[in-house]
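It would be a great kindness if you could assist me with a short task in structural biology. Thank you for your consideration; the sequence and its tokens are set out here.
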Amino acid sequence: MKSPLKIKLDQRSKYLRSLVVRSLIGGGRGHMGSAMSLIEMLRVLYDDIVKFNSSNPLKKDRDRVILSKGHGCLALYAILADKGFFKKKELDNASKLNSILGGHPESFKVRGVEASTGALGHGLGIGVGMAIAAKIKKQKQKIFIILGDGEINEGSIWEAALSASKHKLGNLKILLDYNKIQSYGPVKEVLNLEPLKDKWSSFGFDVSELNGHNVKELKANLKKFVNGKKNRPSITICNTIKGKGFYFAENNPKWHHRNSFSEKEILELNKCLK
């Protein structure tokens, strides 16, 4: 598996990152590093995999995407704006008072957001409920849950994982953003998750692992899931780089969240996208 550091970002990935930067500059704050590790996952989901209708976001047969690590919402806002769920000018007000785009996503405010998340550990449980409902109703939609690595410190994640396995939820796919840095430091020092593949496998999941910035790998993995007929839930461990695409922010905990940006930092953010 290639190192995520060796993946050169194409123009599509840079463009979506530019929308995140637009939100950061407009709002003057936000979870920058946490959003940049997510871009390729969301890009592939919405460009190639997920069934959605931005003109009718509550269409019954749509697939569901739940960003359980809600603090990465600037990446979700970028792809939703790009797909026409709301106007891109809303990004200029992200995180500001009275903006629809808060520091965590709210389903009752933002078209295309399936669940209000941010209090970590709840998105998988919500997704399991959706997947069970779809199975009971014999509906064909897929449920995609994006988890953070620090987030799976939460016991509620593992309770939901047990339920997903028990109910043989072959319509549920987890994408785990494994950037290995959480808000208080390296994941392996805060609460070591390894052996991670073995843990999820022991909970009854079909487990795969790939480079979370490799669009080709992500597309192949997700298409295999969509076209397959497994009787158990799936997880893809996506090895990523926190702050991917910005040399000064990559693997730098100081860029997990920022409350302000200097003029020099704004120049550097924009320079990296050229």
